């Protein structure tokens, strides 16, 4: 069974000191590097939040406060601080992440009008990113997922992986949650398990 490691959004803006820092984010990087060192993956894929200036998921683009919610193209949208803007330091991958074995990069969130948590498709399920096509082209059947953040982009990537027919595993030690609400991370784990994601210790 061919397998891929999907590393979700390990970017400067999601790490300590970034515009949308996930608590404990940098702690997962040595774990992810060790996974690549100790395992033989057929593909190693990075996803990269890659927003244009003025993206509609930004509070500043809507005259709203961070933490508010609006309806954007028919789906609820949490209002985030400006983050991972194309070509900025914040959008770059963290310098400590070993990219030597990376075989492919998927950029998401490029459409000004629609956010994209999942590495597979936007939040409206209108546009695919090409990740599914890439994995199927390379006969990948099993995906292991790590990265940021567990209760948003990691969760939706994992759920879409299951829905796309992949045996899907989440490395608990390779992810951290935003926890906008204190139980978000815990609830994300329960939801992933319920939908068929295997959570590894």
Automatic annotation (TrEMBL):
Enzyme class: hydrolase
Gene3D superfamilies: Isochorismatase-like
Pathway the protein contributes to: Cofactor biosynthesis; nicotinate biosynthesis; nicotinate from nicotinamide: step 1/1
GO molecular function: metal ion binding; nicotinamidase activity
InterPro entries named among the record's database cross-references: Isochorismatase-like_dom (IPR000868), Isochorismatase-like_sf (IPR036380), Isochorismatase_Nicotinamidase (IPR052347)
Statement: the UniProt record of this protein carries the keyword Chloroplast: no
Annotated GO biological process: pyridine nucleotide biosynthetic process
Annotated SUPFAM superfamilies: Isochorismatase-like hydrolases (SSF52499)
Keywords: Hydrolase, Metal-binding, Pyridine nucleotide biosynthesis
Highest taxon, organism lineage: Bacteria
Pfam hit, one: Isochorismatase
Isochorismatase-like domain residues: 4-184
Sequence similarity: Belongs to the isochorismatase family.
Protein name listed in UniProt: Nicotinamidase
